[in-house]
Amino acid sequence: MVFTKSAQIHGRKLVELLGSWHGSDRPSSQLLAGAIRHLVLDGRLPPGTRLPAERELAESLGVSRTLVARTLDRLREEGFAASRRGAGSWIKLPDSERGNEAHGGWFPPEDAGVLNLAQATPSAPPELCAAVDRARLRLAEQLPGHGYQPHGLPILRERLAERFTRRGLPTTPEQILVTNGAQHAFALVLRMLVAPGERVLVEHPTYPNALEAVRGLNAMPVAVPMVEHGWDLELLTANLRQTSPRLAYLIPDFHNPTGIRLDAEGRDRLARALARTCTNAVVDETLVDIDLTGEQPPPPMAALTDRVITVGSASKSFWGGLRLGWIRASEDFVQRMIVGRAALDLGSPVFEQLVLAELLVDADEVLARRCAEAVERRQCLVDALREHLPDWRFRLPDGGLALWCDIGAPVSSRLAVAAEQHGVRVAPGARFSVHGSLENWIRLPYTLPGDQLVEAIRRLAAAAAAVPGGGPALLTAPIA
Ligand SMILES: Cc1ncc(COP(=O)(O)O)c(C=O)c1O
């Protein structure tokens, strides 16, 4: 493990990340160590992070130094921290988790015994192998060239442009830039449009990696809360007016994590608000194809205002392992992005682009099966929740790959710690929050096969019963 520079986390920041780590229970080293361990496993405390000194930590947390010292002892014993006299303590991964360090702090290590509900990522469709075979035959045409295509392969840009046009958003191949996934696409746009210290408006909750990108640029996320039925457009418009964000980041097509879609009327209002306040918006369409409604889709946001830059992805429609996404914007903007991109990378892999171009030929069939499977698995998850955790509340998502579940008490981070010990990994609500709040919520993806989902929920129910101070109270607490 090589760290060029270890980050120091301040007591105040750690307290924010820890949220309500002991709930209404007495603080204990067991609870604190569990909460810190969870932050490490879900990537919010990367290995190498230097912890505050014992005294600072005790003061920030409002606990005794003895409790902090015991917590550090526990973390050291479990292999999650190391200390050296004079150098303080820092986060590390236990040897058993080491093989996965290449993932960085972000993706928790895979563990054969653990059912992973922390990521809403589907496996590859069976059609992928045939697409690979066809792409292999087309590769020969590419080999005489140098292989660098910073804008993307022409055939892929053409097919992506055709898909936008078919959805009611006329698009030329020159308006498409192929990227290494939607996250890369968003990071490129951010870098192009936003300077450190500027504001970026986000829905709250929102997709955690987008928040990381905003924070990584030292820009300031401005959180606009989602309400039960989706977007409070009056509030959103007021925020656009009052905070003058440099950019908005929005997920109107099966919002992650709630799975809600913004309807046609809402889109009109949003487009008008963006135009009136002269705010550019990135509309993230990563989940647009996972439409579980069976209804006619509303128009793409970019068809309603030229303030919208669309980012898309092959990850949910086809497979995350392709690591391909795209930006759809004006030709001029795409041209500027190609120039700006050179500072970071010089294009996406040719072979994967050929594979995606092949997959797009039969996209409608692949996606019809993918959505049918998602409906089936969503039902398995719903049935398992009704049986094992009947008091948890959720709204059936319109699309996407996860349920956003109200667990009835502000203990989701502690539940996630307990869940890990029961062999299931979950993403607590705080993960989707700008301030580490949303402790009443948990995101439950339905991407695993049905039998694994049922087993995961059974384990989660056992974990909920074991959460200190939770148990029956957690299961029956009234929902605010
Ligand atoms: C809303 C949203 N945007 C972006 C991404 C990342 O997509 P990609 O794998 O294409 O980088 C995800 C993945 O979960 C997502 O849910």
In short:
The protein has 480 residues and is of the alpha/beta class. The chain contains 16 helices and 15 strands.
Notes on the structure:
By secondary structure, this protein is an alpha/beta fold. The chain folds into 3 domains: 11-103, Winged helix-like DNA-binding domain superfamily/Winged helix DNA-binding domain (Arc Repressor Mutant, subunit A); 127-362, 3-Layer(aba) Sandwich (Aspartate Aminotransferase, domain 2); 365-476, Aspartate Aminotransferase, domain 1 (Alpha-Beta Complex), CATH 3.90.1150. It has 16 helices and 15 strands. It has an 8-stranded mixed sheet, with helices on both faces. Helix 6 (154-166) packs parallel to helix 12 (350-361). The protein is globular, with a radius of gyration of 23 Å. The structure holds pyridoxal-5'-phosphate.
Task: Give the tags.
480 residues, alpha/beta, Arc Repressor Mutant, subunit A, Aspartate Aminotransferase, domain 2, Aspartate Aminotransferase, domain 1, 3 domains, 5-stranded mixed β-sheet, 16 helices, 15 strands, 41% helix, 14% strand, disordered N terminus, disordered C terminus, binds pyridoxal-5'-phosphate
Which secondary structure elements does this structure contain, and how are they paired or packed?
Layout: H1 11-18, H2 29-41, H3 54-61, H4 65-78, E1 81-84, E2 88-91, E3 115-117, H5 127-142, H6 154-166, E4 176-179, H7 182-193, E5 199-204, H8 208-216, E6 220-227, E7 230-231, H9 233-243, E8 247-250, H10 264-276, E9 280-284, E10 308-313, E11 325-328, H11 331-341, H12 350-361, H13 363-388, E12 393-394, E13 402-406, H14 412-421, E14 424-428, E15 441-445, H15 450-466, H16 471-476
Parallel strand pairs: 3-14, 5-6, 5-8, 8-9, 9-10
Antiparallel strand pairs: 1-2, 4-11, 6-7, 10-11, 12-13, 13-15, 14-15
Helix pairs in contact: 1-3, 2-4, 2-14, 3-4, 5-12, 6-12, 7-8, 9-10, 13-15, 14-15
Residues 181-183, 207, 251, 256, 284, 286-287, 313, 315, 320, 325 line the site of pyridoxal-5'-phosphate (PLP).
